[in-house]
């Protein structure tokens, strides 16, 4: 690997591009994409679990009558729906603060 890194540095006048270094360390572009996809799925799975927990905790604090009017619970449910849609559909991972 040291020889490969040296060869990579010899190809460029300055520092090699970030993407080229990442591909070299990962073992190629296909493997790098596989690693990224796995990391994305883990991130979405963790976000989904946290959103489910937040909804359950907020719901436990409210009476049945107040659940329909609670804006914070509605926001948590919308966030959970977004994360689930991203995890299932492979959609673009949106900013966690809205839009």
Please give a quick description of this structure.
The chain is mainly α.
What labels would you give this structure?
mainly alpha, 0% strand, disordered C terminus, rod-shaped, 99 residues
What does this structure look like?
- With 99 residues, this protein is mostly helical.
- The protein has one domain (2-89).
- It is 75% helix and 0% strand.
- Helix 2 packs across helix 3 and helix 3 (29-61) packs antiparallel against helix 5 (71-89).
- The protein is rod-shaped.
Rg to the nearest angstrom? 21 Å
Sheet bearing the most strands, described?
none
Based on helices, strands and strand pairing, what is the structural class? mainly alpha
Helix content: over 70%
Shape call? rod-shaped
Strand content: under 5%
Low-pLDDT residue spans: 94-99
Topology:
Elements lengths: L1 H9 L7 H9 L2 H33 L2 H4 L3 H19 L10
Helix pairs in contact: 2-3, 3-5
